[in-house]
Every structure is written in structure tokens, then in C-alpha cells.
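tool=predict chain=A
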Amino acid sequence: MRKEEAKKMAEQRGIRKSRVGVVVSDKMDKTVVVEIRTRVRHPLYGKIMNRTEKFKAHDEENSCGVGDMVRIMETRPLSKDKRWRLVEIVEKAK
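tool=predict ok
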């Protein structure tokens, strides 16, 4: 019965967004700042531009360091700014 309820809840919640980015700050406790870079075309002039967004993500074990490439996923609000959580470390910084 529990598994059926969990599956039903997941369907109601919908698909959660997932992003891959680079950690730019790990100074906070259990929180990292992840920068996501996307290339977008300017709507009028057509030039390709780099657009960056920064997200605060929850890192339970404080395992990330600056320069690590990580995957983050949307979650419920954990604080004023944190709405993402760390899923995995894709690549450690060299």
C-alpha cells in the first residue's frame, strides 16, 4: 500500500528539474552555490551570449569543493534562498 501511495504522490508532484553546474562557493555550512552556464541566442540581434544563473543547493555532507561539477535537483524550499539539493558530484576539481 505504501509504494502505491508514494508512486501516486510522485505523479502529482510532477517531474523535478535537474541541472549540471560548477560549484563557485562552499563557505556556508551544508550549502553550496552552483553556477549554471547556458548559451542563448539574442532575440533581436541573433548573437550567441553566455547566460549564468546561481543557485544555492543543499549539501548534507559538506562533500563539495569549489570547482566541482555537480548535478542538482529541485526540491521544496529549505530556507529563504535554497530550493535545490545536491544529487551527485559529476566530477571533482583537479
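The chain has a mean pLDDT of 91. The longest helix spans residues 2-13.
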